Amino acid sequence: MVSEHAAAQVLVASNRGPVTYALEENGELTAKRGGGGLVSGLSAIGESETGAALWVCAALGDGDREAVRRGVGEPGVRMLDIDAGSHEGVHTDAYNGIANSVLWFVHHMLYQTPLEPAFGPEFRAQWASYETYNRAFADALAQSAAPGAAVLVQDYHLALVPGMLRELRPDLRIGHFSHTPWAPVDYFRMLPDDVAEQLLRGILGADRAAFLTGRWADAFTECCVAVLGGTSGTRIGVHGLGADADFLRERSRRADVEERLVALREQVGGGGDRKVIVRVDRTELSKNIVRGLLAYRELLASRPEWRERVVHVAFAYPSRQDLAVYRDYTASVQALADEINSEYGVEGWTPVVLHVKDDFARSLAAYRLADVALVNPIRDGMNLVAKEVPVVSDEGCVLVLSREAGACEELGEDAVVVNPYDVTGTASALYAGLMMPLEERAERTKRLAAAATALPPAQWFLDQLRALQA
Ligand code: G6P
């Protein structure tokens, strides 16, 4: 039960928080804790070190909103029902309309530019909601922060918060972290000038703006220079979030993962002689799942000796299904997988095993089993799958990795690097992966795992906090 929030010394703000509530049929609320770098980072800061910590997040569904209404909550978490009172629909407009349909599309360069974007009245209405939603966060943070507290604002959902908060509470140390890529300047400037300015000024309201790689940090700086003439004293930092080796190694050896491993082997078939190409993604436009399937089909077409000797295990988990483009994309993934299966499949061999229901234990089982992991996003802030697979892999795994993923900066040397638009090139990379001698594969996996775990989540978080407080 959290009704009052003591003045916190360290605050995190993000759209999606560490816990969500589901409203059961009997009227009870059940809480589900999420994972991820921020959760382990925040739990790593002992109170003795930093004082009380508070996570401010948005109520995302009916369960969350009901929890806010009933005053149900976890210590250290403050959930904001942005849509309460006269604000009905504000969160949806801000989250689906601006954050996921505009800012996500700009930073991942996803627009089909002859038709989109077209920034008109609908966009302007949603933009007003985005401002309201950011304002709600800024107000809540201003209320809950102790004098001189450190506030770590996360991601494109909350780009205006640092500037708004700075005005309310000049005493605070404010950081902003972008978990996405940052758009190249010409692409970013598709946004209306006033909106582009507001977004940059919003982030520059922070003492420090940080990114996952130097490439995204440089792109942000270039945008600031082009649009505003400079970064006006805000420090720019880079923190390359790594995989959590201890957690992954322990978790991937548990019984539920072993069970799924057995089930997956059965689905792959071939008595253990078949090779497995694995991908695990949210069904997300930027993940480039369709071109990955096209590349696999090209491999089967051009290297017929691999038919019946390889299976593509593809997990494409539901994401942002409120948006029609995401639903359509999910349907294209499903249709193409079916097409490949009817084109090439024979009795006893299904070329593509596609799962679309989220299951973390099964993902870990697939990581263990993979001979080749395909991570081919069009653009990606980091991509943690690329970092997790080498850590968990049983016998070494070739990583086929897009040069447009942030992770490529750290993993490029030991991965097979691809241009994500080059389907034929990706097919060749998959082939190279299947052909790589086991010894070389194991050596590379060892080096990949070391690079992937260089900055574990807790350290990643503490580094940011210290840099902000310095
Ligand atoms: C990306 C973003 C995160 C976001 C996640 C899942 O990684 O950087 O901020 O939470 O995608 O997206 P969702 O819309 O489901 O929160």
UniProtKB/TrEMBL annotation:
A Pfam family of this chain: Glyco_transf_20
Extract the SUPFAM superfamilies matched here.
UDP-Glycosyltransferase/glycogen phosphorylase
Q: Which PANTHER family match?
A: BCDNA.GH08860 (PTHR10788:SF106), TREHALOSE-6-PHOSPHATE SYNTHASE (PTHR10788)
- Give the record's family classification: Belongs to the glycosyltransferase 20 family.
What's this protein's name?
A: Trehalose-6-phosphate synthase
Organism encoding this protein: Streptomyces rectiviolaceus
**What high-level taxonomic lineage is stated for the organism?**
Bacteria, Bacillati, Actinomycetota, Actinomycetes, Kitasatosporales
